[in-house]
Structure formats: structure tokens, C-alpha cells
Design brief:
21% of the residues lie in helices and 27% in strands. With 410 residues, the protein is of the alpha/beta class. Helix 5 packs antiparallel against helix 7. The longest helix is centred in the C-terminal third of the chain and has 15 residues.
Amino acid sequence: MCCRFMITGNEINLEDYNYDLPEDRIAQFPLAQRDESKLLVFNNEGIKESVFSNVADFIPHGSFLVFNNTKVINARLFFKKKTGAKIEIFCLEPADNMTVEVAFAKHDASEWNCLVGNASKWYGEILEKKIDVNGDECILYAEKLSNDRGNFRIKFTWSRNDLPFSEVIHNAGLIPLPPYIKRKPENGDSDRYQTVYADVEGSVAAPTAGLHFTKEVLSGITNRGIDTGSITLNVGAGTFRPIKAKNVLEHEMHYESFTVSRDFLRKLYNEAGKKIVAVGTTSVRTLESLYWISALNKHEENFVLKQWEVYDAPEEGLPDLKTALKKLIDYLDNNNEHYITASTGIMIVPGYKFRVVDVLITNFHMPCSSLLLLVSAFTGSAWKRIYKYALDKDFRFLSYGDSSILFKQQ
């Protein structure tokens, strides 16, 4: 039997995943204390409200909690032409499938795929921006190489070859707040739009479910005997890309790269059978993709998981989680490698059968978004009750908003 049965018919009507989100419910600023945000708890007992500082009380004892440790880069660069026109360059990802680590380590030039604001005013001249790096001047140059329907390839060079690009962009750029935050970044955003456990630079958007965690909350989780592990998925601007097709199955999902270590895979292998708790939709996407990369033998190809192919896989003969993880661990051992780096375009929609994740910690998402579709796949039709409760109880929405802990309904 084929897994395609999980999607009923040939259509998922986007309008079925719409709801009214008033502008004043979109949080424009974070709370003074991260863990004082509201926490909606949804499980078999129904829906109730708490505060995030108590989240450990709702995580099943002995669970395995998975974080995304990606770190947001200062991806928004502002240049001013000699005419006075302002040009904004939003760095999305390194060009030519280069890893962020390699692109950041460059000392001479680094090429990126970008969005450009006020592009009609940029006729081709090389832009310049003076920046201060540890008290010394550095000049950053931006050269437009190509434009493919609004996707620009930009070559960055700079005047000091002693500096890696990571240090240049850190000093030249601003934190890239989401477009629904209608204000300019402030100094505090550099800290608050990062998780306290952010470690690996490469994202242009924060894995916002993790913004509520504090060192105190993490200590409380450890004290309850809950083990933790980290993956790295670099969040791209595609996470904000709206679904325009009325039929969701016609939407082209964005790809995101992720990295998991052999040590993490071994830990997850040992924890299989316990409740797996994902912090954020990015962690869900990574964990579920890991299973399918093994189940579909993508480790023998190019480690790329396509958007819909998991729904075409025969249900009969699919491995359990431990078997799938063992295959990946053996692959790394046999090739003397320590990490798996892969790319996933998986789109998790209602009807998807979750193979790894049991509990999801997440914020409240935009209407008609791929993230809301994932939440609906996880909670079934209950997502409507969950979001109505949050709206009725004055929860704050989106990146700087409140949080929820959701138990899988399947």
C-alpha cells in the first residue's frame, strides 16, 4: 500500500487553514523576560494555560528534547548610493550551494543569493559601505552579478583581507527581523532574536520556538531527568514565503539545509521508544527528514529529500525509527565521517504520519502558512480550537509572541 492515502484526494484547500489574526495580536516586541510568555498546553486532557517558566512540568519524564542550535546572522545590509538612494541587501544563502561555514571563512570575496530592496535604483555600480571593525575602518563592496526574477547574486569584497567575511557582515549588517514586525531593529534585538543556546551561524530567521528558553528553564528540564540534543537547520527566508496556490498540493516548498552529528544520531538511537520532543517546526522538519533519508536510501544518493516523495513511499516494509537511525550511523562509521549534511524540501501537511516526533513546542503561526499546516498535521482538526483559545485568551502571536506545547494526535 502507498502512503499517498494519507492525503485525501488530490486537493488541500488553503482556505481551510485560514483564521482572522488582528494586527494588534502580532507581537512587535519581546517580553522583558523570555520565560514569562504564556504557554498553551494541548494534550489528551484538552487545553489549558500556564507560563513558559513551567514548561518542564508538561514534558513527559524521560523524554528526549531536541533543539535547533542555529544562530541568526546580521543578514540585512544597507548601502547608500552617491545619489542618496538607499539600497537594502538581504543575504539569504551562499551561492553555488556553498556552506555558510565556507562562505564565512572567505578572506577575499563571498558570493550570496540575496533579495534587494529598491533594486530599480541600482543600475550596476559597485556599492560601498564604511564599517568599523574593532576600532579600525573597513570598506565593504557589493557588486550585482545577476538577477533571476528578483533573486540577485551579489559578490561581496572588502578592503581588509585579514578579516573573514563572518566578521565583516557581523559589523556591517543588522539582525533580520521578520516582515510582520513593523519597526526597525533595535539594539536589544541582537540578543532577543537569538536563542540562549544559539551556536552555529547561518540562519536569516530565528527558530522562534526557542526564544522562550532561559538558563533557568534549561536547568529545570535537566533536573527532571529530560535529556537533550541539538541539530542545526539554517532557517531561510523561505519560511516567510506565503502559499499562493489555492490547492496546497500545488505549492512549491522551499529547501533548507541541516546538519546532524554522529553523536546526536547515536543519542537519538538510544532514546528511540521514549517521547521525542521537538523545539520548533525546524526541529520537526529535520527529525522527520532524517527518518525518510534513511528509509528512502537518500544517504546513497545526494542527501536531498524532495517535497512530496515521502507520500509516495510504500507503507509496507518501512523501517522503524531505530532501524532507520542505525543505517545512518553505520553509513557514517563506514565512511569515517562525523556529520550528515542534507537538504530537505519536505512539506508536512494534514494527513502526514509522523515517524519521530511526539511532542512539539512552538509559537503561533500565520494563517495559511506552511507552518500552520504542519501544526494541523500534528494536532488534527484540534488546531482550530487551539488557535481560538489563544485568540480568546489574549495570547501574543508570531516570532516574539507566546508559546505552546502540543501533543501529537494520531
